[in-house]
Design goal:
single chain, mainly alpha, 7 helices
Length: 160
């Protein structure tokens, strides 16, 4: 999904790697970029968030900025999937609950009895309160289906 999120949010993005930068250096001419972002996985592993999450991508979340920065990214991806950007943003409508199950993966799964109980309780919310409940294996959906479901979802759940 990284490509979908990146390309739908920043369609003109260009990614370069160390070999590309070496080629530019060898040319011996200056290059001027509007905006540049350098990512260093090794440096990220020394960060505080990495220590807590074991995810190099968690480090930018420690930087100062608007707490709503993700909204623009979410809206771009949601609209690209064919939904209106306002779908799934509010809390006044009927909740859409999505539980992303990994039971068929062969690893990182819940104990089957715990999974069954969780699904049973989610379906009680559906039956008792009319919530929309989706129990899905995302790997069985197309990328567009995954994006549409995620865009409509107001309550998300997964486990590591």
């Amino acid at each position: 999904m990284n490509q979908w999120v990146l390309r739908t949010t920043f369609p003109s993005v260009s990614m370069e790697f160390s070999a590309d930068l070496n080629d530019r250096t060898d040319m011996g001419v200056p290059f001027v970029f509007d905006r540049v972002l350098f990512a260093d996985r090794a440096a990220a592993m020394n960060g505080e968030n990495y220590g807590r999450t074991q995810r190099t991508a968690s480090e930018p979340f420690t930087l100062p900025g608007s707490p709503y920065w993700w909204s623009a990214v979410r809206n771009s991806v949601t609209e690209f999937s064919g939904l209106n950007a306002t779908v799934g943003q509010g809390t006044r409508g009927n909740p859409v609950i999505t539980y992303i199950s990994r039971q068929g993966w062969g690893r990182r799964m819940l104990i089957q009895a715990d999974h069954d109980r969780l699904v049973e309780e989610l379906y009680k919310l559906r039956d008792d309160f009319g919530y929309e409940v989706n129990v899905v294996s995302m790997d069985k959906l197309s990328r567009v289906e995954q994006l549409k479901l995620a865009g409509r979802t107001t309550v998300r759940g997964t486990y590591i």
